Amino acid sequence: MVEQFVGTWTLTASENFDEYMKAIGVNFAIRQVGNTIKPDLLISVGDAGVVTMRSVSTFKTTEIRFKLNEEFSEMTADGRNTKTVVTFENGKLVQKQSWDGKETTLEREIRDGQLIATCLMGDVVAVRTYKAA
Fold first, then answer.
1. What whole-number distance in Å separates Cα of residue 105 and Cα of residue 95?
2. Sheet holding 40-45, edge to edge
3. Both ends of the chain: CA-CA distance in Å?
4. Which of 64, 88, 130, 131 could disulfide-link to 9, CB 3.0 to 4.6 Å?
């Protein structure tokens, strides 16, 4: 299940990401950076089913470690402190972040050998496409 996501993925396309960042409350300066960097996403599964997801770029490296279906605290790249839970549903890794009465969902799936990350906040949808490195 999660094993299909394991590996290193390089961002190749990003659609509507600025609007998504705006919707979750990211300030203009950080959005400018967020729109220009092309992070690598490194996903691995360790002992006892702990999943590690690292986003590596020249700007910042962030890492989360989690077990499926278990809530954890996440400090996002843009400085939000969220309660996050990741589940595996219909072949997708579904990451729900909650903070200050808001919620966003990031769905990651493998489609045609690419990792597709769909970012949802209200009616705003961004799609980021990664290829295997």
1. 6
2. 61-66, 51-56, 40-45, 7-15, 124-132, 114-121, 102-111, 92-99, 81-89, 72-75
3. 20
4. 130
Look up the domain containing 118 and give its range: 2-132
In terms of C-beta density within 10 A (0-12 exposed, 13-18 middle, 19 or more buried), how is residue 96 classed?
Answer: middle
DSSP one-letter code for 35:
H
Q: Which of 76, 98, 100, 75 is nearest to 85 (CA)?
A: 98
Single-letter amino acid code for the residue at 39: P
Query: Per-residue pLDDT for 19 more than 90?
Result: yes
CB atoms within 10 A of CB 133: 10
Question: What secondary structure, in 3-state letters, does 1-29 show?
Answer: CHHHHCEEEEEEEEECHHHHHHHHCCCHH
pLDDT in tens, 77-125: 899 999 999 999 999 999 999 999 999 999 999 999 999 999 999 999 9
Predicted local confidence at residue 58, as pLDDT = 86
User: What's the number of domains the chain is made of?
Assistant: 1
pTM: 0.95
Residue 7 confidence (pLDDT): 98
